[in-house]
């Protein structure tokens, strides 16, 4: 079953390569979505895939980027459009 989650990372997450590393980590998993900086100084990660792959991906983000992360907020999203097909950095 395909699911989509929106994760907001706060802390010192901008200007440290967070987006590029997230994209690199995503390439190791069967997930799609995007990562982008927000105007509020946080990083938004939208990820779509099976529950297992999303969990594995997010579990891989923490050890590699955890030193920059001060807080994490995660919400389940309803998929109302076509499934995503790649993981990209959004600007």
First and last CA, distance:
29 Å
**CATH architecture call:** 2-Layer Sandwich
Mean pLDDT: 96
Based on helices, strands and strand pairing, what is the structural class?
A: alpha+beta
Order of helices and strands: EHEEHEE
The biggest beta sheet reads: 5 strands, mixed
Cα shape: globular
Q: How much helix, percentage-wise, in residues? A: 25-40%
Q: C-alpha Rg, in Å?
A: 12 Å
Total helical elements: 2
Strand content: 35-45%
Number of domains: 1
Would you tell me which CATH topology applies? Alpha-Beta Plaits
Spatially, the strands of the biggest sheet line up as: 4-1-3-2-5
What's the total number of strands?
Answer: 5
The CATH class name reads: Alpha Beta
What's this, in brief?
With 91 residues, this protein is of the alpha+beta class. The chain has helices spanning 18-26, 51-65, and strands at 2-11, 32-37, 43-50, 69-77, 87-89.
Note the main attributes of this structure.
91 residues, alpha+beta, Alpha-Beta Plaits, 5-stranded mixed sheet, 26% helix
What's the structural blueprint in terms of helices and strands?
Elements: E1 2-11, H1 18-26, E2 32-37, E3 43-50, H2 51-65, E4 69-77, E5 87-89
Parallel strand pairs: 2-5
Antiparallel strand pairs: 1-3, 1-4, 2-3
Helix pairs in contact: 1-2
